[in-house]
Specification:
By secondary structure, the protein is mainly alpha-helical. The protein has one domain. The protein starts with 5 loop residues before the first helix and ends in a 9-residue tail after the last helix. Helix 2 runs antiparallel to helix 3 and helix 2 crosses helix 4. It is built from 6 helices and no strands.
């Protein structure tokens, strides 16, 4: 976990929320559907992994077919959020979503085992990875034409800076 002063976090949060608010006014940006899509993408990556492991355990080709179909769908849907260009953003986006989900799942297992402190740390780390996905993809990609600037010292708590923006219950 990264640690920065509270003043950096407060400044970053205020700047980020303000910039997002301005962009939403200008473009009518609504991220609620994109949020739902990211969760779906996380699950598609997990399905790909399960199909792989099921094939390795059983050697049944139906699991390879499932993997191919799931991968094709994941790629198609990822294009709706992530710009495919010469950078590593596409691959990084996939791995950030997958890592966020896996770390979240470890947190839920720890919570179920009564290890609340460790679970909370995992949830924080999962949220940070998810925040990094949005930071990467809100800056000049499919979702928005206007870049969001960050100061180097404003790296702590990316998820906390966007949680007001990413309200899952917005319809």
């Amino acid at each position: 976990m990264l640690f920065y002063s509270e003043s950096y976090f407060k400044m970053k949060t205020e700047n980020f929320v303000k910039a997002i608010g301005e962009m939403k006014k200008k473009s009518g940006l609504d991220l609620s559907a994109a949020e739902d899509l990211t969760i779906g993408l996380m699950n598609l990556v997990s399905l790909e992994e399960h199909a792989f492991f099921s094939y390795m355990k059983t050697k049944e080709s139906r699991f390879l077919d499932m993997l191919n179909i799931t991968r094709a769908l994941r790629k198609k849907l990822l294009e709706k959020i992530v710009k495919k260009d010469d950078s590593e953003g596409w691959c990084m986006s996939k791995h950030l979503l997958a890592s966020s989900m896996r770390v979240y799942e470890v947190g839920t297992k720890l919570l179920g085992d009564g290890k609340e402190k460790e679970a909370k740390e995992m949830f924080e780390d999962s949220a940070e990875l998810y925040g990094l996905f949005w930071k990467l993809n809100l800056e000049g990609n499919r979702l928005q034409e206007h870049p969001i600037s960050y100061k180097e010292q404003e790296k702590k708590g990316i998820f906390n800076s966007i949680k007001k923006l990413l309200e899952c219950c917005k319809e």
